[in-house]
Every structure is written in structure tokens, then in C-alpha cells.
Design a protein that fits this description.
heterodimer, A: alpha+beta, Glutaredoxin, four-stranded mixed sheet, 8 helices, 4 strands, B: alpha/beta, Rossmann fold, Ubiquitin-like (UB roll), 23 helices, 40% helix, globular
């Protein structure tokens, strides 16, 4: 049994989920990024075994896949929490106090930038400009933009989301 | 009656979806409302317009509860009506790029066609030649709006003359400059103009395929552009035998970028399109000779393409009437930072910074003193207050050490520390360096370390000179624009604000009171009434004092978070 087959056996995720993506783009040249974006959409991150799997299926070098995956900020090699907080660190946000917002998030959640809370409710990451400069400082959580933030307002939003997540957990 | 809701990213962030929910809920009035893009006045969002009998009634900062009273009596309802001053500032802007943003429904191709959309490309197909089109662009004097300001006609001509079995038109919509969002606004508010601009370029260089490389951070822009492409295909405006004219083929697709600032550089963008790490390569050969898949490729950014249909429709000479000799046309700026009326403004080249910031932007928040304006993002520089009468054109701005760049204009007041600004930009470019060139990879890192040291109060004699030396070496030793321009924010702040660097290094003070390591919070004894609010707010409990007695801050324990300063209602905490 080859190493790649072993990896497939030990895979923690259902690799067949990405077969359609590989089927569609595997033979289209220049589609590395598109495939990885599809994988991330499927699992929320890039499980390392998927890179091995794609390499095996398409004949691409695993090292190349890893190189591309680690070059772009969009790709994550670790799972993220239910709510992905993207705090804008653009110029306008910086000038209008994004660092105070970052401090508030870090204090409220007890995690550093790039980390996920132990209950898996939040992941906090800094991002380059979100393009909402006139409403600075801003953050985006799961696609929704929160504008003109103050530390108090930020903490309020986080507490609301946490309460939501907890009540959902109780229901399920 | 027609109702329009401003539904760009900024509008949504300010609560446009709540307005739309409310409009949906008001069933009895049978409101027929439509969405539109960003009109540029982001500080007034959410914006709602009522169109009735040729008149437009514009309401700003509209909350859901305002919707009903406005609709009931839009002629006389005054509460949310746009001020005369704000309405005037719109009139001051001749609009070429943004003419449809905030006017038409970006999701309805008919809206675009009704105002003469796709006529320019039809005319090209029916009665023009590639040479004539390129000549028109040459007459217009249009220069690339993405940053470098290279004459557009020259690139098109090079791509046209370059032989190849197939050619590509690529749109750079990877708007990476922090502080610039005009491309997003065009994509969200007027995607068909971009499509038409790319089609005209395709006609001029003889290409039948276009690719739009869009930032993944712009989900709404991608969605609207996808819909626009689909609608155009359905009407035979994209695809084969366009308008039924045999042999006129052009199609477009979207490629979502994955987040890398360096991909704004043409050759890095091409590498990324090909699925590689987005790293630039040596030029020549230029993309016009060997671009996407080694074939002739023309790359322009969104704003550049968005100018093209207007130029073809109205003539290059009409476009050249805007602006000054060396810089023609209008330029869109993203006016943000400490300015009262932030948003997108489109001004003729040659207007002064003062007019942009004070007449259109309304001046500085809280009427504080204006200190500097940062132009051109991480590749640009800071223009100081004494140069506020500088004309906004490529040459004049470059002479100050900054660049027009993509059009980010971040206004700063006396509370912005210029050393911290330089550190902020270096932090950005250092993280975004692709790592190919040693000076860019390591040089920016070393410069960042020095700037961090200075802002932490550990700057030492010789640091400024070392920063300057490294700056020139990074500029010389880098292959692409990222490294060549990365030191600009440092060089311009040293040039105009050397005293601030010296204050940080020698006097260990930060005049803007921003660098935590160099400031100190103290209680003003004769103002403190002993309300205990500050002591309760202090996260490290370092403020001592009893009720109704003057409090005191333990300087050794203080972490300089500024909570006490923000909470005190009696001006009794001062920053030194």
C-alpha cells in the first residue's frame, strides 16, 4: 500500500465530497486556485489530506499545491469557528482606531489574532482593506459588515452572536 | 412613483437591507422599489430616493422607521432630506466613471441599455476600425488608473501589433490598496460599463476573450458582475456573432483572486491567473508581447476600462477637456480618514487637494487641524498641510514624493502619528512581499523593525539615516512596483515630518499621543471630582482614590489603554 493510499484511509474528512470539483477543473489548466477555493468552500478550510488527494487525482505536485495554498491569504490550513471575525486593518480603519477594536475583541474572546475560541464559536483574523473605508472602523462576520465600530459596540455584537450560538447548541 | 435604495457594500453596511425589509413589509402602498449602486456619499448611507414625475427626492441616513413617513409625504418630509450643501458637492463633480453609479439598477441590463449602453461597442463593430479606436483613446489622453499612470493607448497599440494566434483582455479588479474602493463601487454599481469597456479593448487589440480578476473580498461585486455577464450573454451582447454581426466574438469570465496584494502587479496577476503563486517576473517581455499563457495580453484596471465607453461615445476630445495638459480626464478618489464627508468623489484632474478635502469633503472631523493626506496607499506617500494647494495630477503629486496611485486619499489630523503611519504601511508591504527579491523580503522587514523600535520608545541615533539608506536599497533592489514603492511612505514622512521622528527618538515623545510607549495618562487634580468612573473602567485596577476625592494613576502598573481618558466626563484625565 502506497503512502497516498494510506493517507486516504486515514482521512478525517470525506474526500469524495470534492470529487465533483476535481472532475470539473482537474484537467483545465491554470485551475489550481479555483480547485483550492472549492475545497475550502466544502470544508471551511484546506485539510492537509485533501492536498495529497488532489495531487494523486490530478497528477499535480503536492508541493506545488501546498505552495499555492500557503501563498494566498484566503486559504486556511486549520478549521475555523462558527463565526469568522474579519477585522479590517485598512488605512482608514487604522486611522480611525482599528487597534482599539482589536484590543476589545482579544479581551472579550481571550484569543489572539488567527486563533479560534475553545468552544469553536469564534475565529478572529485581521484582513486587509474591506473597502468600506468611509464607515471605518469596520469588521465583517460571516459576510455581514459591521460599521462605525466602537469597542463597546464590538463587544455587544460578539455577545449577541455568542448567545445565538449557545441557544442553537441547546436546541440541538 | 419609483423608489431607489442605495445598495452597495457601504449601503448594506449602513443598513440598506433593513430599509428593503421595511419596503417589503409595507404591502399596502404597493411600492415598486429598485436597488442602485453607491452614489459616492458613503457618509450619508443608507440613502433612499423617490422619483416622481421627473423629480428626484433624495433622503439620507434613512432608518426603517423613517420609510413610511417619507413615502407618505415625500414632497414635504424634511427630516432626512439631503442638505443643500451635500447636494451641491455632488454637482461639483463631473462624472464619467461614476455616471451610472447610484443612478441605474446594476442588476438590470435594460437600465444600462436605456441610457445608451452598449451603443459604443455596436458603433465600433459596425463602423469603426481598431486603429480609429486606439486613436480616439490617444486623443483622450487616458492614462492607466490603477497606479502607474501609463498611457492606455500605448498598451493597446502594443497588444494590437503583437502577433499571436489568440489574445487576451484582462481586467485587474484586485483592488488591493488599503483605502481605495472605487473599483468595487463600479463593479457593484455599474458592471455593464466595465463589460463594454473590455469589449471595446477586445475590438481594438483583436481579442475574443476577457478575464476579470476580482478580489475574493468583494462578494457582492462578484455576484453583480456574474449576473451582468449572464444577462449580456442572453441578449447576444457577449458570445458569438454579437448583435448578429458575423465574426464578432467576445466572451468574459471571472476569476476570483485569493488574496495577495502583489497580484496587482501585471506579471504577478498573470501568474495567479495561471494558477501559480502570484510572483512577478522581469519585464520585458511585457504582457503585450507575452502575457497570459504566453500570448499577447492587455491588462487595465476597472476604472480605466470604465472610462472607455464614455470616450468612444463622446469622443476623445470631449474627455480631454477635463483636466490639465499632462493629466486628462477625471479621477475617482476614495476620500476617507478624518474627513467629514467620506466617500467616493470624481474630480477633474488638476483640482487642488484643498478643494477636494475642504469643498467636497467638508473639511476635517471636529474642525481639528489638517496635518497630512496620504495618497496612493502603501506605494504612495503623505502630502503635508503646507502643500495642500498642490494640484491633483500625476506630475504634481509625484513631485511631492507621493503618487496618485489608485486614488486612495486618507486624510489625517493632528491626532495621527506620522511615524506610526509609516510603520503601518511597512507592516503591510512587509507581509505582502512575495519574497522573490531579497531587498523587498528582508529590507522591508528590517525597516519595519526599526520603525517598531522607534514607536516603542527605543529609537536610537542613526535610525533615520539607516531607514533612508535601506529605503533606497529596497527601491533599487526590487523587481516589481511593490518593492520599488514600499519605502515611499517612510521617505515622505521623513521628508516632511522629520521632527516627529526626532521627537520619538531623542525626546521620547509622540506629539500625536498615539504611541502607547511614549505617552502617560495623569489625573488633573483640580478637575477630578472623584466620581470613580475611571477607577471602575481601568482593566488593571491601577487607579486609586476614594469617592469624592482626587484619584491617582499608578504609572508603573498603567498599560496605557486609554479607557480612563475615554470614560472621564470632566476632562480630568490628560495625556502627556
Amino acid at each position: 500500500m502506497g503512502i497516498q493510499d494510506q493517507v486516504e484511509d486515514r482521512a478525517l474528512v470525506d474526500l469524495s465530497l470534492i470529487d465533483p470539483i476535481i472532475e470539473k477543473y482537474g484537467k483545465v489548466k491554470g485551475s489550481t486556485i479555483t480547485i483550492l477555493q472549492g475545497v475550502q468552500e466544502t470544508y471551511g478550510f484546506l485539510p492537509s489530506e485533501t492536498l495529497t488527494y488532489i495531487a494523486k487525482k490530478t497528477g499535480m505536485k503536492e508541493a506545488k499545491l501546498y505552495g499555492v495554498a500557503t501563498f494566498y491569504t484566503q486559504f486556511r490550513m486549520k478549521p475555523v469557528g462558527k463565526n469568522l471575525i474579519m477585522l479590517c486593518q485598512g488605512t482608514a480603519c487604522h486611522v480611525n482606531g482599528a487597534s482599539a477594536i482589536e484590543k476589545a475583541i482579544v479581551e472579550e474572546l481571550g484569543i489572539c489574532e488567527g486563533e479560534t475560541t475553545s468552544d469553536g464559536v469564534f475565529t478572529f483574523t485581521n484582513v486587509a482593506c474591506l473597502g468600506c473605508c468611509s464607515l471605518a472602523p469596520v469588521m465583517m462576520i460571516n459576510g455581514e459588515t459591521y460599521a462605525k465600530l466602537t469597542p463597546e459596540k464590538t463587544v455587544g455584537v460578539l455577545r449577541e452572536l455568542r448567545a445565538e450560538a449557545q441557544s442553537e447548541m441547546e436546541v440541538s | 412613483m419609483k423608489v431607489l435604495v442605495g445598495a452597495g457594500s457601504c449601503g448594506f453596511a449602513a443598513g440598506a437591507h433593513k430599509l428593503m425589509d421595511e419596503l417589503d413589509a409595507i404591502q399596502d402602498l404597493k411600492i415598486d422599489y429598485e436597488i442602485t449602486g453607491c452614489i459616492g456619499m458613503c457618509h450619508l448611507e443608507p440613502i433612499m430616493e423617490v422619483h416622481e414625475g421627473g423629480e428626484v427626492f433624495r433622503f439620507v441616513k434613512v432608518m426603517p422607521e423613517d420609510v413610511r413617513p417619507i413615502l407618505d409625504d415625500f414632497r414635504n418630509y424634511e427630516n432626512n432630506r439631503i442638505s443643500v450643501e451635500d447636494a451641491d458637492s455632488l454637482v461639483k463633480q463631473p462624472r464619467v466613471v461614476l455616471k451610472n453609479c447610484g443612478v441605474i439598477n446594476p442588476e438590470d441590463i435594460e437600465d444600462y441599455i436605456n441610457i445608451g449602453g452598449y451603443e459604443a461597442i455596436r458603433n465600433c463593430y459596425e463602423s469603426s476600425s481598431p486603429e480609429a479606436v486606439i486613436n480616439e483613446i490617444k486623443t483622450s489622453g487616458l492614462r492607466g488608473r490603477g497606479g502607474a499612470g501609463f498611457p492606455t493607448w500605448f498598451k493597446w497599440d502594443a497588444a494590437r501589433k503583437s502577433p499571436g494566434p489568440k489574445k487576451y483582455v484582462v481586467c485587474n479588479a484586485d483592488e488591493g490598496d488599503p483605502g481605495a474602493f472605487m473599483d468595487r463601487s463600479v463593479l457593484e454599481g455599474d458592471p455593464h460599463t466595465l463589460i463594454e469597456g473590455m469589449m471595446i479593448c477586445g475590438f481594438a487589440i483583436d481579442s475574443d476573450e476577457g478575464v476579470v480578476y476580482v478580489r475574493a473580498e468583494y462578494p457582492l461585486a462578484i455576484r453583480r458582475l456574474e449576473k451582468a455577464i449572464k444577462d449580456a450573454r442572453a441578449k447576444n451582447i457577449l458570445g458569438k456573432d454579437i448583435f448578429g454581426i458575423k465574426g464578432r466574438n467576445f466572451d468574459l469570465r471571472i476569476k476570483a483572486g485569493a488574496g495577495a496584494f502583489v497580484c496587482g502587479e501585471e506579471t504577478a496577476l498573470i501568474a495567479s491567473l495561471e494558477g501559480e503563486r502570484g510572483m512577478p517576473r522581469l519585464k520585458p517581455p511585457f504582457p503585450a508581447q507575452k502575457g497570459f499563457w504566453q500570448l499577447p495580453t492587455n491588462i487595465n484596471n476597472v476604472e480605466t476600462f470604465a472610462n472607455v465607453p464614455w470616450i468612444i461615445r463622446n469622443g476623445g476630445a470631449a474627455f480631454a477637456k477635463f483636466g490639465i495638459e499632462s493629466s486628462k480626464g477625471t479621477k475617482v478618489f476614495a476620500l476617507t480618514g478624518k474627513v467629514k464627508k467620506g466617500g467616493l468623489v470624481e474630480v477633474p484632474m488638476g483640482m487642488s487637494l484643498r478643494e477636494v478635502i475642504y469643498d467636497i469633503g467638508g473639511g476635517i472631523v471636529g474642525d481639528r487641524p489638517f496635518k497630512a493626506v496620504q495618497l496612493g496607499g502603501p506605494s504612495g506617500g503623505c502630502v503635508p498641510a503646507q502643500l495642500i494647494d498642490t494640484s491633483v495630477d500625476y506630475e504634481s503629486i509625484t513631485r511631492t514624493g507621493a503618487i496618485v496611485g489608485s486614488g486612495g486619499m486618507v486624510v489625517m489630523d493632528d491626532t495621527t502619528c506620522m511615524v506610526d503611519m509609516a510603520r503601518f504601511f511597512l507592516d503591510f508591504t512587509c507581509k505582502e512581499s512575495c519574497g522573490k527579491c531579497t531587498y523587498c523580503r528582508m529590507g522591508t522587514k528590517r525597516m519595519l523593525e526599526i520603525l517598531e523600535r522607534i514607536t516603542n520608545g527605543q529609537g536610537k541615533d542613526g535610525d533615520i539615516e539607516l531607514l533612508e539608506e535601506l529605503s533606497y536599497k529596497v527601491k533599487d533592489g526590487s523587481l516589481c512596483g511593490l518593492g520599488q514603492t514600499a519605502p515611499n511612505p517612510v521617505l515622505t514622512t521623513i521628508k516632511y515630518f522629520r521632527n516627529e521622528y526626532e521627537d520619538h527618538i531623542y525626546n521620547k515623545t509622540c506629539t500625536a499621543k498615539q504611541c502607547a510607549a511614549l505617552i502617560r495618562y495623569e489625573v488633573v487634580a483640580d478637575k477630578c471630582i472623584g466620581c470613580t468612573v475611571c477607577a471602575k473602567a481601568c482593566p488593571v485596577s491601577c487607579i486609586k482614590g476614594e469617592l469624592r476625592k482626587v484619584h491617582e494613576i499608578d504609572q508603573d502598573a498603567c498599560i496605557k489603554c486609554g479607557q480612563c481618558f475615554q470614560k472621564c466626563k470632566f476632562d480630568a484625565i490628560r495625556v502627556y
